[in-house]
Amino acid sequence: MQRLKGIFMVVTVMLVALALPSACMAQADDDAFTVVIDPGHGGKDTGCIGRKAKEKDITLAVAKRLGDKITKKYGDKVRVVYTRKTDKYLTLQQRADVANGEQGDLFISIHVNSVDKKNRKRASLSGTSVYTCGLHKTKNNLEVAMMENSVIELEPDYEQVYQEFDPQSDESYIIFEMSQDLHIKQSLQFASLAQKRLVKTAGRVDKEVRQAGFWVLWATSMPSVLVELDFICNPTQEKFLASTSGQDKCAQALFEAFRDYYGK
After folding, report:
1. Residue 264: CB partners within 8 Å, gap ≥ 6?
2. Which of 1, 142, 187, 192 has the fewest CB atoms within 10 Å, counting from its CB?
3. Does 113 map to a domain?
4. pTM, two decimal places
């Protein structure tokens, strides 16, 4: 019951924050469209690990390539903001704070996937999925959300900071059932475009657009997606993700999705 009270409290706080006028946030430059690119993990939080590669390095490389492509194409019409540009540790809330503070128009969180070492199929799994925040309709979706949200546990006093939200507790995920994504239509639109391009341009296996309870998506007050590029636990996909050509293909796919979404 105490945990549920904490969850109700954080829902209330977040909904109030989302309702605040934009004047309470930092002013964006002129009328430029602001895209916030979030390279998952960083610093002491390595993310998923393959035989050699680390998630935090792959996501940063893809994020920078994506940002460079957007800037080259649109110049000052689109403002690119990174939650991190170096091997730096950030909490999930700090990532959302950057996006909200910069009044982002689109939030793209980049990750790579993996499964538990006990999974006999881990070396053969492949495919890309783009997530929006919502109800986890399958066990697999919930497991991915739990894995990504588990970085909360690296923070001291995370139970107090996140109002007793436990990333490993099914009960805690009632938070996402109680909240409604104000930007779900736009989020799903970009997610669909990104999924299509990752399959077509980057040659990834289609694992479809999905929904699950990711804290970093729930806490951002703009259209937001979380991209799982592929499975680093598969040696073949790890090699692709760690390669310059693979990272550029993934960045190009996300750029094409942004181009389609931005429409200018």
Report:
1. 74, 77
2. 1
3. yes
4. 0.80
